[in-house]
Amino acid sequence: MKRYEQLVELLATDIRNGRLAPGARLPSIRTITVQHGLSASTAFKAYYRLEEKGLVRARPRSGYYVIGPPAQLPPPAALSGREKRTSALVSSRLHISELVFSVLDAVQDTDIVPLGSAFPSPDLFPLQRLGKSLARVAPRLHGREMVAHLAQGHPALRQQIALRYLAMGMAQPMDELVITNGALEALNLCLSAVAQPGDLVAIESPGFYASLQALERLKMKALEIPVHPQDGLDLAALARALERHPVKACWFMTSFQNPTGTSLPREKKQALVALLAGRGIPLIEDDVYGELYFGERAPWPAKAFDREGLVMHCSSFSKTLAPGYRVGWVSPGRFGERIAGLQLMTTLSASLPAQLALADYLQHGGYDKHLRKLRHVMEARLASLLAAIVRHFPPGVRVGRPAGGYFVWVAFDAGFDALALHEAALARGISVAPGPIFSARRDFRHCLRLNGGHPWSARLEDAVQTLGMLARRQSPYAGPDA
Amino acid sequence: MKRYEQLVELLATDIRNGRLAPGARLPSIRTITVQHGLSASTAFKAYYRLEEKGLVRARPRSGYYVIGPPAQLPPPAALSGREKRTSALVSSRLHISELVFSVLDAVQDTDIVPLGSAFPSPDLFPLQRLGKSLARVAPRLHGREMVAHLAQGHPALRQQIALRYLAMGMAQPMDELVITNGALEALNLCLSAVAQPGDLVAIESPGFYASLQALERLKMKALEIPVHPQDGLDLAALARALERHPVKACWFMTSFQNPTGTSLPREKKQALVALLAGRGIPLIEDDVYGELYFGERAPWPAKAFDREGLVMHCSSFSKTLAPGYRVGWVSPGRFGERIAGLQLMTTLSASLPAQLALADYLQHGGYDKHLRKLRHVMEARLASLLAAIVRHFPPGVRVGRPAGGYFVWVAFDAGFDALALHEAALARGISVAPGPIFSARRDFRHCLRLNGGHPWSARLEDAVQTLGMLARRQSPYAGPDA
Fold it and tell me: Which pick of A17, A85, A155, B226 has the fewest CB atoms within 10 Å?
């Protein structure tokens, strides 16, 4: 790492941790040069980079200041009451799908500003280059190629994925990997492999609605574990829940969690794996945003600490490369045979043209170069959204500053009604993802998830302004907490 | 239809129906010219065509004779006892997957003669032409194309499929169709949409093992309805079963059924739809072999008679065009919303490159021309397999002569052990599909399914000879019925 990059990383970490609070002035260039023994040009380069990342802003003749978010998220207890939750956290029935679909329907419409979308903005994806890979592999799809290699996915792609694990320092043998129809199929197969109807499964609260839908579909019960706004899942709450309840499996997103954007730090991932290993509980790890990190290094997944084969690590190319290709995978630990068997019974395999095109692209296409650019741009876009929220949302709104991914989780005061905002915003051509779709018990009615992955534009600025106006209108009705 | 084609159809129908029995001599060319008012060259052309189809054989200076199969299948009662079945036909637990997988594993190996395979032989598929479609659509996969149009599948493909329905005289609006990851996903989604764990579902006996696996996976119960060797599902047995049991749904293959190759005639399809409509029972119709008919016209599916929206018509391109693309669909009747919703929760959608390439191919690629050739060649290959069975299998073996598809169902005497034959054959590098994998109760131990879709070769001839030798060896152990 170059010296200016070291300085960027140092200051960016302090800003994300809150040690350098919003509004704080960065040390002057002069101070930096003296303290760190750097040239002024190196120090300037570092500050320009931080500005580019959307973390600081220069004020003429004054210096560099840390910008938004206006405040961190409240502690989990304040989100909806941890103690109340610990006693009432088993949801017997979810009934979530209808609500989720009514929200997602709106996102399909291209005329709607897609702040509620879960999809990445595809404008940065190397689709031309991928198209070339597709054209290159097309003639190879002949004869037995078309029917052999279906089970578990094509070896060429499994090899490329195994190499990427290796580059991270994780050995996941290609013979164990199972290629799936997106991470969504991987997650659903994992769940079916380790739990039965009626079983209790621990999920995050708030958490990705696909886990809620899967539990509802398979008639399992949700045990909601609160997510801490700074460092992800509340492990102490999980440990207490495991004492009290017969949890059959966990389904967690350990890095850049959807919807909060939070990550478990490395040592907490290790502790999570140890906690579950002690009880022999399988972990379904959803890691689809892991490659979209803003720091200098990829976060290790919990899978990296798995010695017992209890962690099923699920990911895909849908957030970084090619959502429509529908290719994901799972490194399944000890559950590989069961997962592969379930896939053979339900979809047989992922589509071969997409698998082979991705294998070709991974081998020749410059995926890492693409990812570096993608991370860089995502961080800047997210910063633009955060800054717009500061400008337009009512004072007192709380947002986190994610260290990766493209979601911003916004918490209003307790009386706020995100479902009402969702309706009002839709009527003005703007989608948002209201908090209740991320909870089996429809908690988080005072929260919103916004997609910050789209290129910043006047249209987005207007949309955030409109949301802010609609949120302010709610204040009179917000009740005593507002 | 040309005059010689009319004659071919007339005689082929008589041969398939058994009105012209194996060994029977066809009318002389002279008789034909007189009876039908045709020229001798037209009559010869028809006979050549029948020979090409593998239905007749010329004997020098003697005439044309109907060749194999040696006998028709026994009536369903003789297969495993219909009355016994009607009382004991509910299988509480299936435990079928392990057996199926152990059989299917062998088929993966390219060194094994694939008589046990369920896959079509890909040698006839227009993969070069499909590859061109893939290359052509590749650059179109950009921007919002990649995330829009995921739900229900891409409109371009839905439109092409709707046009094919229209060409058959069936109006299935493209807005209702759901594109899936192969027919297998369609079938599984349909089942989840209309039945719950514990529910009773009527299936065919013998029947496609995917239905058994699906019921086992979803903890549903199987009600086995016998398949008649001439004209498919025993409707009277179904009607009796519906009187006695609370059947929640049916899952049937109405044309060129896997494994028996039988079809429900048009009037029986209509009667089936009426029977189920009277009770409001949904029908999951698996029609993946419907395009592989040897007659002059495509058989209508049961869906064609559906007025209530109770029939979910599932098919795919996997048996005719591109198995590895994993693209199928369902025309879902009144269950479309539920099926599409379940897909959004589990795999999201089928892969876009494959969908768009197929849409392009259907629009420009000459699918109908390809299908005509495929049907022609399949029929001849199947005839080669039937003829080899006549040459090499023990006398008394019974086989049907399918009017479409590529499977031959072989019934030995009652004491025969197809699982033992499967093991012995595998040791000699030959796979077969033993009868018990097609039954929830592991019936049909005296039966085999053979794949007749591969190009005929000395290797296949040898394999059939070896199977015949192994079958003869079993005779001493076959028990009193043998």
Answer: A17
Regarding whether B180 and B251 lie in a shared domain, the answer is yes
Are the Cβ atoms of B345 and A104 closer than 8 angstroms?
no
Asked whether residue A276 falls in the same domain as residue A192, the answer is: yes
Does residue A89 form part of some domain?
Answer: no
Q: At what angle do helices A182-194 and B336-346 cross, to 10 degrees?
A: 90
Q: Given CA atoms A27, A33, A35, A36 in this order, what sign does their dihedral have?
A: positive
Arithmetic mean of pLDDT, B241-270: 96
B320 in a structural domain: yes
Residues B185-206 pLDDT 10s = 999 999 999 999 999 999 999 9
Smallest Cα distance from B119 to chain A, Å: 7
Burial class (CB in 10 A: 0-12, 13-18, 19+), A405: buried
DSSP class of residue B315 equals: E
For residue A275, what is the enclosing H or E element?
helix A266-279
CATH number at residue A56: 1.10.10.10
Q: Which amino acid is at A171?
A: A
Residues 6 or more apart in contact with residue B331 via CB below 8 angstroms: B165, B172, B176, B177, B303, B312, B313
Alpha-carbon distance of A412 to A307, in angstroms, equals 41
Cα–Cα distance measured from residue B296 to residue B13, given in angstroms and rounded to the nearest whole number: 10
Do B140 and B93 share a structural domain? Answer: no
Domain ends where: B348, B366, B384?
B366
Q: Where are the beta strands (DSSP E) in B327-400?
A: 328-331, 398-399
Q: DSSP secondary structure string, B30-83?
A: HHHHHHHT--HHHHHHHHHHHHHTTSEEEETTTEEEE---SSPPPPHHHHH-HH
The DSSP secondary-structure symbol of A245 reads S
Examine the domain organization and report whether A358 and A417 are in the same domain: no
Residue from B181, B208, B218, B406 to probe the interface with A (highest A Cβ count within 10 Å): B181
Is B257 part of a structural domain of the chain?
yes
CA pseudo-torsion sign A241, A242, A244, A247: positive
Of A311, A336, A367, which one is at a domain's C-terminal end?
A: A367
pLDDT band, very low/low/confident/very high, at A76 (cuts 50, 70, 90): very low
CATH number of residue A208's parent domain: 3.40.640.10
A251 lies in the same domain as A221: yes
Sign of CA dihedral A418, A419, A422, A424: negative
CA dihedral B196, B200, B201, B203 (to 10 degrees): 150
Same structural domain, B419 and B270: no
Q: In whole angstroms, give the CA distance from residue B123 to residue B54.
A: 20
Range of the domain at A252: 127-367
Q: Residues A147, A268: one domain?
A: yes
Confirm whether A463 is domain-assigned. Answer: yes
Q: What pLDDT digit, counting tens, does each position of B328-358 carry?
A: 999 999 999 999 999 999 999 999 999 999 9
Q: How many CA atoms lie within 13 A of B6 on its CB side?
A: 8
pLDDT at A482: 37
Question: How far is the CA of A208 from the CAs of A214, A227, A260, B99, in angstroms?
Answer: 11, 12, 10, 37
Count of positions (residues) in chain B: 482
Give the span between the Cα atoms of A211 and A187, in whole angstroms: 8
A338 plus A373 within the same structural domain: no
Q: Total structural domains in chain B?
A: 3
* Probe site for chain A from B327, B351, B406 (most A CB atoms < 10 A): B351
Instruction: Report the CATH number that the domain containing residue B107 is assigned in CATH.
Output: 3.90.1150.10
Q: What is the dihedral of CA A434, A314, A323, A94, to 10 degrees?
A: -30
pLDDT tens for residues A304-361? 999 999 999 999 999 999 889 999 999 999 999 999 999 999 999 999 999 999 999 9
ipTM: 0.85
Q: Are B185 and A104 an interchain contact pair (Cβ–Cβ within 8 Å)?
A: no
Both structure tokens of B71? 């006998």
Distance from CA of A169 to the nearest CA of B (A): 30
